[in-house]
From TrEMBL:
<dbReference type="InterPro" id="IPR016195">
    <property type="entry name" value="Pol/histidinol_Pase-like"/>
</dbReference>
<dbReference type="InterPro" id="IPR003141">
    <property type="entry name" value="Pol/His_phosphatase_N"/>
</dbReference>
<dbReference type="InterPro" id="IPR004013">
    <property type="entry name" value="PHP_dom"/>
</dbReference>
<dbReference type="Pfam" id="PF02811">
    <property type="entry name" value="PHP"/>
</dbReference>
<feature type="domain" description="Polymerase/histidinol phosphatase N-terminal">
    <location>
        <begin position="5"/>
        <end position="70"/>
    </location>
</feature>
<protein>
    <submittedName>
        <fullName>Protein TrpH</fullName>
    </submittedName>
</protein>
<dbReference type="GO" id="GO:0004534">
    <property type="term" value="F:5'-3' RNA exonuclease activity"/>
</dbReference>
<dbReference type="InterPro" id="IPR052018">
    <property type="entry name" value="PHP_domain"/>
</dbReference>
<dbReference type="GO" id="GO:0035312">
    <property type="term" value="F:5'-3' DNA exonuclease activity"/>
</dbReference>
Length: 286
């Protein structure tokens, strides 16, 4: 039995491979009743996705996955259910988009020095123009045969200490939570088990996040094991945080992650959607 909610997904507005319309149709076909489109650092796909959702008879919530730097580490926060026309939020996201432009140029420069020319044009050819992410570079490097798969490209070229890695400062925890809260939404820590932090560092992050007004943790994630899920449920309970659930779907090229194929939240979790006033997808399905 699957959840009916999928509150973390990507389209061609960032590094997903389906257009917002195709993503919504795929979600509806997979039985998702409530989908959040959460592209990296931009909301350019939301209007199109909402239109498609009306046609498909599902609910589409505005979302965004904001890149944050906390204690010199990159952490992703997912904002949900906010006014995506809010100008302070858009100004904040614009600063991150501008940082990405310069970073992409620098990544290409460094890859050039490592013997891989024309990587900026190559990465751009995989992006629909809204934003360039490391994923687009990885797809280009796979295409030209530098590495056989994306995972290897990241490991050998795009992470800290490798030739194409560019350090940088994203938003602060407080900024990102402030933008989402002021636009009427809620913020959750995306895929909290994926940061390779010690348990005590992760709990420090969660504590700082809760103190800054964060609302919840992504307890159920496409990249969480069953154990991760129960551990994150425990952390959410300890810090009085709500629980969210999302696949982090990027498209059919990554078949190990499917839209909406998410288990129920562990017992004792308070779902982030509890007070959203949406009738339960299960109730609707009966
Ligand atoms: P960026 O936000 O541009 O730094 O790119 C981060 C994105 O790269 C993430 O959202 C993932 O979609 C993708 N990514 C990160 N690590 C890996 C990996 N090891 N293999 C494949 N994709 C990855
Ligand atoms: Mn991504
Ligand atoms: Mn992420
Ligand atoms: Mn994501």
């Amino acid at each position: 039995m699957f959840l009916g909610y999928d509150l973390h997904s990507h389209s061609t507005a960032s590094d997903g491979t389906l257009t917002p319309t195709a993503l919504v149709r795929a979600a509806a076909a997979a039985g998702v009743k409530v989908l959040a489109l959460t592209d990296h650092d931009n909301t350019a796909g939301i209007d199109e996705a909402q239109l498609a959702a009306r046609e498909s008879g599902i609910q589409l919530l505005p979302g965004v996955e904001i890149s944050v730097t906390w204690e010199r580490q990159t952490v992703h926060l997912v904002g949900l259910n906010f006014d995506h026309k809010n100008s302070a939020l858009q100004d904040g996201l614009k600063a991150l988009q501008a940082f990405r432009v310069g970073r992409a140029e620098e990544i290409a420069l460094r890859l050039g020095k490592a013997g891989i020319p024309d990587a900026l044009e190559g990465a751009r050819s995989f992006s629909n123009g809204w934003l360039v992410s490391r994923t687009h570079f990885a797809r280009f490097l796979v295409k030209i045969g530098v590495m056989p798969d994306m995972r290897k490209v990241f490991r050998h070229y795009l992470v800290h200490g490798k030739p194409g890695y560019v350090p940088g400062e994203w938003a602060s925890l407080e900024q990102a939570i402030g933008w989402i809260t002021d636009a009427g939404g809620q913020t959750v820590i995306a895929h909290p088990a994926r940061y390779r932090m010690t348990r005590s560092k992760l709990r420090r992050l969660i504590k700082a996040f809760a103190a800054a007004g964060g609302a919840g943790l992504e307890v159920v994630s496409g990249s969480h094991s069953r154990d991760d899920c129960f551990n994150m449920a425990r952390h959410a309970k300890d810090f009085g945080l709500l629980a969210s659930a999302g696949s982090d779907y990027h498209g059919p090229e990554h078949p190990w992650i499917e839209l909406g194929r998410l288990p129920q939240l562990p017992d004792g979790c308070v779902p982030i959607w509890r007070d959203w006033g949406i009738s339960s997808p299960q109730a609707r399905a009966i």
